[in-house]
User: Which sequence fits this backbone?
């Protein structure tokens, strides 16, 4: 259900079959790409990238939600409730903080006004990604230090892809490319794995 909701909000396609393919491949990735019983690709992200590669009628429109301030309040409010439940607010904070610093430095370097800076951080799709997709507790690194490092790496790669290669879907490609890194980080810094049961965490 979560994967279907994410795909419905972020992915666009001309044919229903493309959406079905994205959902199917996303869920399938949870059972194929696993290490010690843990999947490391976000299913919705995997589905989006898969159909972008495999089909000609799928696309993601980062600006589809606009950049109005009320979107930020809506996503921040709902995202805060989810992050409070899963305890992964540090991942979002690290990503947004690192990316904001990089964009701020670029903005100063180019001498642009600060409304450009705000515009690049207030996209509805960007906030959806940072608050929900990036914080999937079942696929991101387990240890806090791993999550911080992982989120900063994704912010850096997103910044490079967006500003050097002019990729409007940079956030999705960055997450896809660096998802396997969580396996290495879990090996370096072992920690309890997230579980949705009443105890919240399981060994």
Assistant:
């Amino acid at each position: 259900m979560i994967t279907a909701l994410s795909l419905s909000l972020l992915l666009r396609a001309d044919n229903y079959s493309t959406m079905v393919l994205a959902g199917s491949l996303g869920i399938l990735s949870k059972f194929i790409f696993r290490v010690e019983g843990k999947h490391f690709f976000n299913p919705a992200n995997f589905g989006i990238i898969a159909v972008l590669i495999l089909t000609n009628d799928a696309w993601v429109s980062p600006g589809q939600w606009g950049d109005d301030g009320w979107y930020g309040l809506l996503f921040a409010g709902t995202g805060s409730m989810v992050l409070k439940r899963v305890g992964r607010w540090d991942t979002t904070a690290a990503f947004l903080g690192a990316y904001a610093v990089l964009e701020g430095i670029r903005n100063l370097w180019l001498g642009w006004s600060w409304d450009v800076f705000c515009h690049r951080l207030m996209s509805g799709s960007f906030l959806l990604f940072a608050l929900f997709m990036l914080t999937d507790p079942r696929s991101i690194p387990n240890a806090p230090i791993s999550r911080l490092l992982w989120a900063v790496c994704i912010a850096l790669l997103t910044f490079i892809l967006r500003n050097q290669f002019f990729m409007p879907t940079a956030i999705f490609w960055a997450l896809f490319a660096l998802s396997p890194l969580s396996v290495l980080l879990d090996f370096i810094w072992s920690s309890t794995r997230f579980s949705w049961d009443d105890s919240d965490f399981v060994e």
About this structure: Strands lie at 11-13, 34-35, 38-39, 58-60, 193-194, 201-202. The chain is about 65% helix and 5% strand. The longest helix spans residues 89-110. Confidence is low (pLDDT under 50) at residues 198-203.
